[in-house]
Amino acid sequence: VGVPLEVRVLPVAMSNASAVGGSRVEGFEGTRRYVCTTGFVVRNGDKAGVPTAAHCPDQLLYRGPDGGERGLTFEGGWGWAYRDVQVHSGVGAPEGLFFVDRERSVMRPLLSWRTRPQTRAGDFVCMRGESSGYACSTVELVDFAPPGELCGGPCAASWVTATGPACRRGDSGSPVFIGTTALGILKGGAYRQGAGRDCAFYYYMSVDYLPEGWQLVRADSADGPSTTQLR
Fold first, then answer.
1. Mean pLDDT of the residues in the chain
2. Which pTM does this prediction carry?
């Protein structure tokens, strides 16, 4: 029909980056403990929250870099088609900051955002995952549909992929960014077969698809945090 097509055969297994703006949260499903990573701070009116992936447990405990713990309140989850995000409140005053290093000793301010239509193959992007730490690579596809029913059913062709080798179980919900610009929240990865199960690429949900009412909190050195409406 005259539409460009790319077919790739990869010896990889697709999965969500199972439960582990870049901080650690933990939860249980049955007797199994899961670890996820929080994305950028968001706000809905007077309520502040942190997002992570919707396939993480609903009940999560936030662990700060100093070892402090805080129970979070589940506000809602959106995990189908083009979304994989849930939001938890109970984070205190919102700050437009996110960790970028493995040790969570370095924070960056969130100053802007880039939507999926503004993202191009070849863009240099970075992520901070609880398992992978800080890693950078390049965007491959901006219209990827993960196979199977990883999105509460078939996935929409709205996911953005970035090359490996960094993506591990526990990175779910990680912030994906360029410098101080937010791009999205990591959902999962494609892992090569074999003992190492190396990451071929990871894929993320663009910030375009944050749930209605929840807005990114942007740092503003002059006037304090402000919210950014994407739509």
1. 88
2. 0.87
